[in-house]
Structures are given as C-alpha cells and as structure tokens.
Fold each of these.
Amino acid sequence: MSSAIPPVAWSACLMLAALAPVAHGATRVATPVSPPAAPANAPERDPEALAALDRMGAALRALKQFSLTSDASTEIVLEDGQKVELDGVVTYKVRAPNQLFLELRSDRQLRQLFYDGKALSLYSPRLKYYAQVDGLTSTLGELVDDAAARYGIDMPLADMFLWGTDKAPKTAIRGALHIGGGTVDGEAIEQYAFKQDGVDWQLWVSKATALPKKLVITSLDDPALPQYRAHLRWDTRSAVPATAFQFTPPADAARIKLVPVAVVVTDAGQEN
C-alpha cells in the first residue's frame, strides 16, 4: 500500500467536499452537451423562454459588481429512499472580472472562499483550517470551471458566471416553456421551465432587471427526484470593497494542502 498524500491533505479534501452540500445540483444546468436527435414528440422549445435566457445572460454579464444572498435548500436522498432537506444561506460578493467572495452557512457548517484575482483561499472559521492556491490569473468564468475540474469544488449558482457566454449554449436545452407572470418579493417576474438531460429546472426572472429571482432544479438521475431550491436577493447598487476578497489567515488557523482531484484519484487507485 502506498500513499502520496499526507494526512493533512486528506483533511483538506474532506473540508472541500463539505464546501457545497447546499449547492448539490445547483450548478451546471447549462453544461454544454451534444444534443441528441429530436424525436417526433420532442418537448416544446418556446422562443420566448429561450429569449429570456438571452436577456438574463446579458444582464448578468453587464454587472460590474454585486452582492447576492440566496436562501437555499437541498434534498438529500438516504439509502432507504427517504429524502432529507438541508437548508443554508449562500452569500456572494463579486467584482468583475476576477474577484469573488463566497460564504456557505448552515446550522452544521460554515465555509468561505476568497479569490482576489491571484490567490484562491478556502477557510473553515469553525474548524480553523484554511487552504490556498497562489499564482492564479483566472476570470470568474474560468475559476468556476477550474475549481470544479481541478479540485472538485462546485460553487453554488455557478451558472450565473457562464450565462451569456459560449460556455452556456442553449443547444443543451431540450425543452423550454414560458409559464406566465407573477411576483417574487413584491417584484414582477416571468416564470419559465426548462428540460435538459438529467435535470428539469424552473426559473423566475425579474421583469425590471432580467436577473433571476428564484430557481428550482429537479434531478432526474435519482428515482426520488431530489430538488434544489434557491431564493435570490440581489444588491447591484452598493459598492463592494476590495477587502471583501482578501484573506488573511487568523493566527490560530492551520494551513492544510489543497489536493487536485487527479492526485486523489491516482492515489486511491494505487491503494486498491
């Protein structure tokens, strides 16, 4: 048996694996895939629903800075098929093109992620552990992809950094419906429903700002059909200071190693 990863590195993996339990299923509804040939009974693709995604993408890409708070809930399916709902609050502070702060808070955990355009830092305030990667130059869209692919970090609501770019092609959407109007938080919205391979998702979009106000994603890969729900509150007016993206380790915090997914997989294979 061999092990190229020290014990503290495994601790980092565990800390990062716990980074996004309230985010499971909350990302990658726009993952590019090659669409299959449309059958005769293919779902409807309403042009208005697809146009709403274009408007939303343009509105998101136009934001130079913002703060976002999302009340999120995730349904976890236990081995016996019972579903358990876990709630949490997701907080973002963002300055385009390359600065981000993310906090995931629930009764069971508190995790923070900082990116100042050069260094990616992850911190667990309650456990007093942190991990860092220096020498980065990624934009936010690149960071979302790199963090997921390299370190297995799936950021909640990550698609908001991809909509309006070529990384979120509408060809992945097999069905699109305009459900109708309504209100969320007293704000006029239009509701839409979409189908993709593996997921159905609903979107409530502000008529005034074209920003998403509510999101529900249903996973079709599990017979229990677990859902992720997010209620979004935007602040696009208040200035976000540069200090929001800077991480200084507390004196009593211990640094642990951030291990790439490929290293973990390779090492696991060596042990088997």
Amino acid sequence: MYAASREARARSREALRAALAGSDGVAATTGSELFAVVAVLDDQRSLRVALADVSVPGSVRAELSERVFGGKVSAATVAVLTTAVAQNWSRTADLVDTLVLLGQEALLESASDSGRLDAVEDELFRLGRIVADNPDLEQALSDRARPSSAKRELVARLLTGKVEDITLTLAEQTVTRRVSAIGPALDELSDLAAARRDQIVAHVRAAIALTDQQRDRLAAALRRIYAKQVTVHVQVDPSLLSGLVVRVGDDVIDGSAIGRLERLRRELA
C-alpha cells in the first residue's frame, strides 16, 4: 500500500473510532453494514471507481456515497463511509480493502464489548486449521467461479449454532473476498483479534499434542523474547517427526526433526 492509501486508511480508522465511541451496541451494526456496503461495491464497478476517483473532489465523492447509502445504513456507518471515500486512495482496491478491515475491526470491537473476543479469536484460528487441513473445503470456499452466495450458504451450514454469531459473520464475509487461500485469511483475522488485546499470536506446528504445561512454558519463553503477551495456537503435524515449528509474524523458529535434517542436507550439499 502506497503512502497516500496508508494515510487514507489511518484517517478512516480514526473515523471508525469516533463513530463507535460511547455508543453501546453500535459496533456490531456498523461492522455488518460496512460489509454490506462492500458487497454493493464489489457488484457495481462504476460506483466503486467513482468513489475512489481522485480527479473528483473528496467532498463530491462523500456526497455521492451519502446519496447512495444514506437511509439504508446507520448514521455511524455513513460517517465512516463518507470519511473513507473523501480520502485520496492510491488504488480503488485500497478503499474497498480498508472498508473490509474497518468492518472486521468494528465486529471485533463488538466481541470485546460483550466479553467474547477470546472465543471469537479461538474459533477463527480453529476454523482456519479445519479449512487448511481439508483441500476439498478450501477449494470450495476459494473457487472464484463459485457464486458468493453459495460460499456463504456453505459456511452457514457448517457453522450456524456452533460458533459465535460474530465468528460466523466474519467467516461468511471472508469467503466472499478474492483471496488466494481462505485458511491464511482466517489466520489473519485471528491475529487481528489478538492484536486488539495487545497480544501477538504464535502459530505452532508440533509433532505431537502439547500438554498445558508445555504450552505455558512456550508462551512464557516467547513473552521474554517479544516483551508482549503471547497467544499460542497449536496445530499437530506428525510429518515434523519430533519437535515443533513456531511462527510469530515473519519470524520462524524451526526446532523440528525434519527442519534439522533439512539444514544438515544443505550443509552436506
């Protein structure tokens, strides 16, 4: 994302914070409505381009967005949307991606307000693992030729009554986006939820299941390294033979047997 879009995103986030401040219950509505706005923009290319056209004054673009969506969404959503479209974006896609992010953050704020953020974070992580471990499901949810409505229906059948409503909404929206892989996209949402609690996420692949004591020791070690609270998510991967692989952001710590064998192979080559 270029500088112009980064600045535009920052200002749009400020508008979201202002819209949600001191208003009980507005976060969930705002998040869902921002997703609905994105769905309209995805379907209507001409409107999408018009709202991000930097050759048109920002005030004119904001007025257009209010004419189109005013009365159909809440005042809080209109405030966020008009602020976002009034900014100068480097690419049209940056505007749409930011509206998606703002919708996600609003829903996670709602989960935090209701004390359910931990549950949502864990469910998103577990769903990401289920998708990543099931190639047929991954293909069905990421197939660009498959209608978005069919993907949402599939997610609803799998998750309704089994996860938090916010988890379901976030998952349904994720599968409608043009992402290369659904599993990693769900992981990013889980990380976003952790960030709201001022925590970082350690994605751990272990040859065997870790005991609670082992998880606690690992989390404590990572806290010392990163000087932050750490959420540890573990996926069992017998192909590692023994040990584990830890990923925190772009950092990877490979203590697995297969990793040691690979390093030895490179040294001998």
Amino acid sequence: MIPRKTRRGGAQMTDLPTPLVSTAWLADNLGAPDLVILDCTTVQEETPDGSYAFVPGRASYDDAHIPGAVFCDVLGTLGDKDDPRPLMMPKAGAFKEAMEALGVGDNSAVVVYDRGIGSWAARVWWSLKTYGFDEAAVLDGGFKKWTAEARPVSGEAPEIKPASFTPRYRPERIVSKDEVHKIIEEGGATLVHSLSLKEFTGEAAPMPRAGRIKGSINAPASSLVDPETGVYLSKDKLAAHFDAAGARKSDRVITYCGGGVAACNNALALAVLGFDDIAVYDGSLAEWTADPDAPMETG
C-alpha cells in the first residue's frame, strides 16, 4: 500500500522521501497516480576537433527506461534560450511550460534520474527547488542501480497527463557573478569548486582561463558516489568529504563548476547532510572565465 500524506491545499500525495529516494521505494510505488518519473540522461560525445559536447540522451531513453518515465531534455528545455550563457536557469514562464509538458504539476511527486553519477538529475532537482517545488527526489544509484538489480525497464513512452505547475521563484538559491564578487570581497559564504582537483589547481584547463574562482575550495562532485554502484556515499562519508575540503566552515555555501551541473550535485549532497543555506552560481566558470577581470587562482 502506498503511503499518503496531505499537501498543497489538502491534496493527497505519495509519501516521497527527499532529497534521495531508493530503487526499492520507486519499485514499490511505480504506477502511483501522482508520481512523475523523469529520465534526465545527458551524454558526453567527442566532437570532430577532439573536444567533447553534451547531447540529450534520448536514444538511451528510447532503448530502455524505467517504466512510466518521461524523457526530460535538460539541454533543450531547461535552459534560458534568450541567454547566451550555457544552461542558465529558465525564466518562470518557460519553466512552467516545460514542467507542464512533462506532466509535472503542483500535486505531483517527482523522481528524477540519469545514467551517470546523478549530476544531470540533480540539476533538474535543483531547478524544481529553485522554483518552489519540494516534492522531488533524485533516484539513488540512478538507472545503473535500477538495472543492476534486474528491475523492469520499458521502451515505450508513457502518455503524459495534463498538469498545472505554479512556479514560486526562490532567488536565494541562485547567485550571480556580482554576488560572487561580493563574497570574495566581503566573505559571508564558502565558495565550492565542484570539478576535479586538476581543474581546481589549473593543471587541467578546459575553460578559457585555468584554475578556480579566487578564495574557493575544492570538493569534486565526482567523489560523491560509489563508483561501483553509483549510490551516494553514506552521510558520514559525505560529511568527511566536505569537511576535508573545508566546505562546511560557514553556514552559507555557494557551489559552482563549469556550467552549473556538477554544482547541483554538490548542492544535493549538502542537502542530504541537512544544509539549508545553499546556492548555485549558475553562470559558473563558463561565465567567470570569460571575464578577464574576474579574479582566478591556480596552484
């Protein structure tokens, strides 16, 4: 029997654990009338010049997905099309339209997953949180764990139910370049670089300028999950990961990465640890390194 709880004006809802939900919970709740499952898979492909680009994982979805899951084109529908910066948070009207097209409404319970380490799912989860929607969780272990447990998959796209989504923007969850400058000058928050140590030090330089935002510390989002299972580390291990980096030395934490995706995975992990005052620098290094006057550090 599916547990129920009352939310949003008396509506009965599936009792969704957040911010992470287990594969066992999802298997038990498949088919719940208010449950929306979003496959947020985005894949990395090599380009002719030897670099790489991210593309929607629609082909993987069409091949096999969790039964009832709807494909979410994160790159195509959840970025601000009027902004030249990559994958910036869409405006309220565009986000409302995108969610309703996916069948996500005010009375939905949403589970998001991908086929990687959870960063793309975390981006969608953070976007929902930014627009005031809290009944969303990332599937712990994602599609990797689901299939490793021989759980059912489907190649059929489900019928999307009509939905009405009300965006309630929370500006404190997204910070701008100007706000990051202010933090560098005045303090008040910890800046967390979410990419690899080599990118943090400048040894690897995929962005126009090498290194990190001045004053930031390094907590790679790639270290949040068990590489064998894809499951997030225990709370004790996550706490040790962030403590070793110095990420929890202040109440407010600002995460960033290359384009605002891995940063959302760190935001998710911090939420698992009970942090409330978390924000993502949406422009991240794509914006910061394009400004020659924005202070950087290496080494």
Amino acid sequence: MNRFKKSKYIIVLFVVVLVVSVFLVTTQSSSVVTKAGDGISLVDRIVQKPFQWLSSVKSDLGRLTRTYNENETLKKELYQMKKETNEADSLKEQNEQLRQLLDMKSKLNATKLIASDVIMRTPATWKQELTIDAGSQQGVTSNMLVIAGGGLIGSVGKIEDNSTVVNLLTNAENTEKISVKIQHGSTSIYGIIIGYDKEKDLLKISQLNSSSDISQGDKVVTGGLGNFNATDIPVGEVESVTHSNDYLTREVLVKLQSDSMNTKVVELVGNPS
C-alpha cells in the first residue's frame, strides 16, 4: 500500500514537472522566435537597401534616357522645320526676283536677253563679283550689262564656255566705263561710272558732258554709249553732287536702284555691236 502511494506521488510529480517544463519551453521558444524574427527582419532590410537603391537609379536612368531621346527628336524636328522655312523663303525671294525681271523685260531697249542663275559667290569677293551659269555657248558677249531686282547691278567680265564672271557696280576697283544718263527735267546729262564709294555705299559718276543743273532725286539710267550699248536700264537716283577744287569737274553720287547682295537670278542685256 505504501509502495502504491509512493508510485502515485512519483507519477504526479513527473506530470507536474513535465507540465512546468513544457510551459517554460513554450515561453522561451516564443521569445527566441520573436528575437529571431526581429533579426531576420533587420537583415532583410539591410539586404534590400542596395537593391532598392539600384532600382531607383535604374528608374532615374530610364527617365533621363527617355528625356534625352525626346530632346534629340525635338532638335531634329526643329532643324527640319528651320530648313524647310529657309528653303521656302529662298524660293519666295527667287520668285520675286524673277517677277521683277519679267516686269523689266518688256521695258528694256535691247534685242538680246539671256536669263541666268547665280551659281557661285565667295564671301571674300561678295561685293566685287559673282558667277552665273551662262557663257559663250549660251550667247554671252562682252558688251552685255547685267540686271537684277529692277535695275543695273554690273557688267559681263570673264566669259567661259558655260559660265561668266559678273563685275558688280559695288566693286570699288571696277574699271569698266559704263555710260549713264542723268535726267534733270527735260535735260539729259551724260557721264561715266568711275567707281564706288564703299564708305557711303554710293556709285560715283563723273566726266559729265554738260554743266546743266543736277538735283538730288534725278533719275539715272544707262546711256548706251561706248562698249555697253544697252540704253535706259535703271541705275539709281542722284544723292549729291560735289565739285572739284577748280570747279571744272563735278562728281555725282548715286544711290543704286537694285541691291545685289542677295541676287539669285539675273538677266544679261545687250545689242549687237
């Protein structure tokens, strides 16, 4: 009987110890799991940081690349628009010059007319000369004058088979002696183009055949004398008249009718010698 009671106590004690152990183990396990979870979460955050940064950098680079590509596309479109606008402006200007040549054609007192395009002009000699795409094969001769924009701009210089160099009136070193006629009322006064004043941008005329009055605003046209025999081509208007020290000669300064700076098409005018 005593042995049974002892065994019973031992079993009860074992159960109590087992229950207490399980409770303690469960409590400790929960704490360990919680701490382990915190550690894993910390490691996860540390590991994720570089990947988050790389993802952000990748996103920024993507936006930068898209922006760059958009800018390049816009630049190309803008360049194309400017190019088309410039081409349209150039064609518009050329058409206007052609219209002016057609308007003058019926008024010119000449039997020989040759239309031509400007094919070459260098910055160094921009105001001295230009080259056109008509030469001896097209009938160009040395006695022809060159008009554009409603008035005289120069004369024929060096002639090749299919091109010609034009001596411009704005060439201060031009030695061509082109005769002109100054209209003062009903009076005609003849003279010779002797050069160009670069500082004043005015044509110089001298060797006048008359001492008749000349006033500012008088019209000047070609005279048709000498080698260049085409007459009545508009040259310009009288700006001023100056006398030499001995008052024996006068020099007339003329504002040109036509501006040759942006000439694209010309007409060569002449009469058989």
